Structures are given as C-alpha cells and as structure tokens.
Amino acid sequence: MEAARRAEALGYDSVWAADRIIIPWEIKTPYPYSADQRFIVPPDRPFLEPLTCLAFLAGCTEKIMLGMSVLVLPYRHPLYWAKVATTIDHLSRGRLILGVGVGWMVEEFNALDAPFHERGAVSDEQLEIVQQLWGTNRSHFHGRYYRFEEVAFYPKPFQSPRIPIWVGGEGVRAQRRAASYGDAWFPYFVKITARELAARFDNVRRWAVEAGRDADQITLACCLPIELTRNPVPQEEGRLMGNAEQLIEALKAYQEIGVECLALQFMVPRWPERLEQIERFAQEVMPALRG
Question: Which of 114, 138, 166, 290 has CB atoms 3.0–4.6 Å from 74's, for a disulfide?
Fold first, then answer.
C-alpha cells in the first residue's frame, strides 16, 4: 500500500504485480532473464498472489493504473481469472492493465498440474474464450482444452470495449499472439536494443494485418530492468544502468521508436534502497521524458 501510494504521489502512471503461485526448492528450468539463467527470487521469500494484491490496491489508490506483469494463463481456468480481472476493473473504476503470458518454469507447471508443453495452445484458447465472455451476452466454447455451454458473464468490464490485454513474451509465437489477441505487445528484455525492439514490433504489426486487425490499434510497451547510479558508468547497449543523464538518453531511444509505456523493474533488491531509486527517478529522469 505504501509503495503504490508513493508511486501515485510521485507521478508514475502505473504499478505492477508479477505472477508466482509457488516457488520450487529446486529449479532446473533456465530462467531466460538473468545472466546466469537462475531465477532471481529465493523459494523462501514471501510472494503474494498478484490478483489479490491488485484488488487490494484498487481500494488504496485513486488514479494510478494497476498492471499485471504477467498473468500466466495456463495456471488458472479462464472463466475464473476473467471474473477476477473484471471484478478488479470495476473496483478500480477502469484502472486494470492485464498483461498475459504463457509461463516458463517447468517445475511450477508440474506442481500446479498445468500442461507445460501445450501452454501456448492453451493460452490461445483462453484468449479466444475471454473475447467471447467480454463481448457477447451468451458465451459458449467447444475447444481442445476447454468446453462449456451457454453461460452468462456479468458485469462486462468497466473499461470499454474491454480490459486492455498486453501480451507478454519475446519470441515469434508471442509476437503472433499479440497480433491476434492483444491491445499491446509487452515483452520483457534484459539485453536488446531499441532498434531490435522496433524490428520485432514490425512483425507484430504485419501479422495483425494478416489476421484482419488494424495494426494501429496495437501499441508497443515493454518491461525493462533498470538501475539508477549516482555517478556515470560505462554504457552497454540494451541495458538501462547509469546516472540520470545516461538514463534519459537511453530512454529517449525507446520514445523515438514509439514505445508508449515502459514498466521499470528497479533491480536494487532491498526496499529502502529501491524506494530511494524510485524517488530519484521520478525527480531526476521523468521530467525530461515528459517535457
């Protein structure tokens, strides 16, 4: 609550929750977002259920957007999570951003009895289902993984025409999923240049046209790790690390290619130091990006 209210007061547009239900004591699956491919959260660290947290924050804040980065679709039944997301959207008066993804950790899938190797196809069916639930009065579905006869789903989302769906994932399949179902492509990159990001977004736009959608209705967003230092540091292309002046220059490159939202993961591990970075970024970097 303190963190969200402080971010709102500092002028941030959104706060985000990540999805983790359990953390196995032994993880052999390579983590794609760290240099040594090891998951960054120890298994004995508290990790609250994210949708519950966002529902709580809906009542603790007034205007800041509440983002899910990202909901691992195969972990939950679509009729269930769609109801929870719609509820949060109403409780927040239309402030939910629903990031979605297919997941990566085999051990967590196994613990939840979720189909790891079919996670992409399962996720696509779920996104088809939620389009029906939010867009029609009588929804029914007969797919490979989910089947139900006509059901009512009310209320519809507070936001019109629906809660924005931001499709996470970096590869070709994620790009195609964003093109078919998403309101934004929302990848998480540790080391990629703004130019490379723009090139991949061109794929999303091209595939959206092939799917019969208006490519201009799909926006580009991304989540990036960031570290704000006191003094200048050597710059590494595709990595956000440096003092305020260096970060302003690096972030403007993302503005220039059309990124509309940057979700920042401040990498300082402890909260007091992380809060100091969040405050400094708001004071020293954000004015230059918005001016």
Answer: 114
